[in-house]
Amino acid sequence: MKKLPAMEASKKFVLETFPTCTGALLSGSVVRGEETSTSDLDIVIIDENLSSEYRKSFISHGWPIEVFVHNHETILHYFEKDCQRARPSLPRMVHEGIPIIYHPIIDTLKGEAEKRLQGGPPKWSSEMMDMKRYFITDALDDFIGSTDRGECIFIAGSIGESLHEFVLRTHDHWIGSSKWIVKALKEYDESFAEEYVLAFDQFFRNGEKQPIIRLVDSVLKPFGGRLFDGFSIGVNESSN
């Protein structure tokens, strides 16, 4: 099937598949100007007759299409869930989305999404910071000590994800996953994002561990550095 332009394909798809919906938005990479050869169409459907939310995938008009179907109540519930986990996927989709089928409820939802995005994620407690610092230290020790290339590859991946989370959450920024890890780091600090990518690139290309070790230590230093001795979970200090 011939691949139609994104907005044309989206409108035809919504009219065919969700003809009675209240409103619809096109979001994702095609809206941000980041479309690739494998990009899909992310479409948020608002249907006030819907009893519960769902997500479904389609192939239509030459595009892979992901739909996120909600009513007013469920979309606000997912806004809250996404923000609590510090990955505001649905609020971002609504905030950046272009109306396919317009309804005034879209303006209300866009305003709510913007408010939540500007508010930032919930702040970490000092106890949470210590726990995350401990687990990063533990992974780093495994990374430094391991002589198995396969083990090191996957330990490095784990460190990369945990470290990005630590940097962003301790600076009150949203986090990401997969390709959104680097995007989120760039939103925070482009020069740090370059340093982060370079450190892991040097290990994956050449097996150099030191750039990752230096990066971890530089991130943890303002918070007390690596943490092992004295760390505990669930211990009643008054009984010891």
List keywords for this structure.
single chain, 240 residues, alpha+beta, Beta Polymerase, domain 2, 2 domains, 5-stranded mixed sheet, 5 strands, 55% helix
Tell me about this structure.
The protein has 240 residues and is an alpha+beta fold. The protein has two domains: 6-119, Beta Polymerase, domain 2 (2-Layer Sandwich), CATH 3.30.460; 126-223. The protein is 55% helix and 12% strand. It has helices spanning 6-17, 29-32, 72-84, 89-96, 104-119, 126-145, 149-169, 180-188, 190-206, 210-220; strands spanning 23-27, 41-46, 54-60, 63-70, 98-101. A five-stranded mixed sheet has the order 3-4-2-1-5, with helices on both faces. A hairpin with a 2-residue loop joins strand 3 and strand 4. Helix 3 runs parallel beside helix 5 and helix 8 packs across helix 9 (190-206). The chain starts with 5 loop residues before the first helix and ends in a 20-residue tail after the last helix. The model has no long low-confidence stretch (mean pLDDT 95).
